[in-house]
Design goal:
339 residues, alpha/beta, seven-stranded mixed sheet, two-stranded antiparallel sheet, 9 helices, globular, disordered C terminus
């Protein structure tokens, strides 16, 4: 089983973005623009949870900046696992009127989502907390893939590799001994999830969108990688003071208002920050469209030009590392383009 080693080494509804400049690189295409260039159209359904939502949050903006077209639906369950997607499909099959069979964001079932468009790509992922443990993937991944293949036979199934938690996430508290099989630190979680996702992709003969690899590349960088602020006294912190979280790819620490009106500092080392969402979108774009994101003109507020260029290079490096392997999305026109 071939596996990529790391280098240096809420709930949006339906998204439709149409723009007029671009190059044909696979996927459904529209008529040529007056300038003679043809944008690439990709129809994408992501079956996942908040991690797939985070990773595609800025995808419409990146696609627009690159001169291409995106049709994107999300079939998401908050914190959802592969098993829960199967259970939702089972609930709908048993009783189409049962709300448990519908996705909260779209009010549609998986069956309805799969029939909604001639999808080019359908992505699947495991819940992040279980991402390192391949035993939790099956038999649910196979069941989910069987449903997708039956209802969207023209779509290419793609594995969305999620990312490891921030290195100072409470899951990695050095004062606590991890349970058997649980990762002790960010590095262990990354290598565990990378192996599990590559095992799944190999089993399914499916390509990978290497978002987790891109996060690992960026976090491992000596200059741009996040490092915890060891000088900040968390116990004595008073709002609005926060530790230095420069270059954090995760939400991290923030102050949250409580029901009694007081504020409490919370920690979210799981979900991605603006920078992490941008990195995810860049990786999705280059994987799906086959075009380099280096030099992309879009960058979200809060990400300066120099850091944006680094994140673009990180996404490009992660995607380029799959070139020539079975994990790369094959270039060319997906089956749905002929429909």
């Amino acid at each position: 089983m071939k596996r990529l080693e790391g280098a240096s080494s809420a709930w949006p509804p339906l998204v439709l973005v149409a723009v007029l400049l671009g190059l044909p690189l696979g996927g459904r295409t529209s008529a040529q623009t007056p300038g003679g260039r043809t944008p690439t159209t990709v129809r994408l359904l992501t079956v996942g949870n908040s991690f797939s939502q985070d990773a595609t949050r800025y995808l419409p903006d990146v696609v627009k900046a690159q001169g291409d077209v995106l049709v994107h639906h999300q079939a998401g369950i908050p914190g959802g696992t592969l098993q829960q997607h199967c259970e939702k499909a089972d609930a709908h099959a048993k009783d189409p009127a049962d709300p448990r069979g519908l996705y909260v964001n779209s009010k549609l079932s998986l069956v309805q989502e799969l029939k909604a468009e001639p999808w080019d790509f359908v992505t699947i992922q495991q819940a992040s907390i279980r991402s390192h443990d391949y035993a939790t993937y099956q038999p649910f991944a196979d069941r989910l893939v069987a449903i997708i293949k039956e209802l969207a036979p023209g779509a290419r199934i793609v594995v969305h590799e999620t990312w490891a938690y921030r290195r100072d996430d409470p899951r990695f508290d050095p004062k606590k001994k991890p349970a058997p099989g649980e990762p002790a630190d960010q590095e262990a979680m990354y290598h565990g999830l990378a192996e599990a996702y590559h095992t799944l992709a190999g089993h399914l003969e499916a390509p990978i969108i290497p978002v987790g690899d891109a996060f690992h590349i960026a976090d491992a960088d000596a200059k741009w990688g996040y490092r915890p602020d060891t000088k900040f006294d968390l116990a004595a912190a008073v709002m609005p003071a926060l530790p230095d979280q420069t270059h954090s790819l995760h939400v991290g620490r923030k102050w949250v208002k409580q029901e009694d009106g007081s504020f409490k500092m919370t920690m979210d080392g799981h979900h991605s920050s603006v920078a992490g969402r941008y990195l995810g979108a860049l990786t999705f774009y280059e994987s799906l469209y086959g075009k380099s994101v280096v030099g992309c003109t879009f960058r979200p507020n809060g990400v300066n030009a120099e850091y944006a260029a680094f994140l673009q290079e990180s996404a490009h490096q992660a995607t380029a590392a799959l070139k020539g392997t079975s994990f790369q999305i094959p270039r060319g026109v997906p089956a749905s383009a002929s429909r």
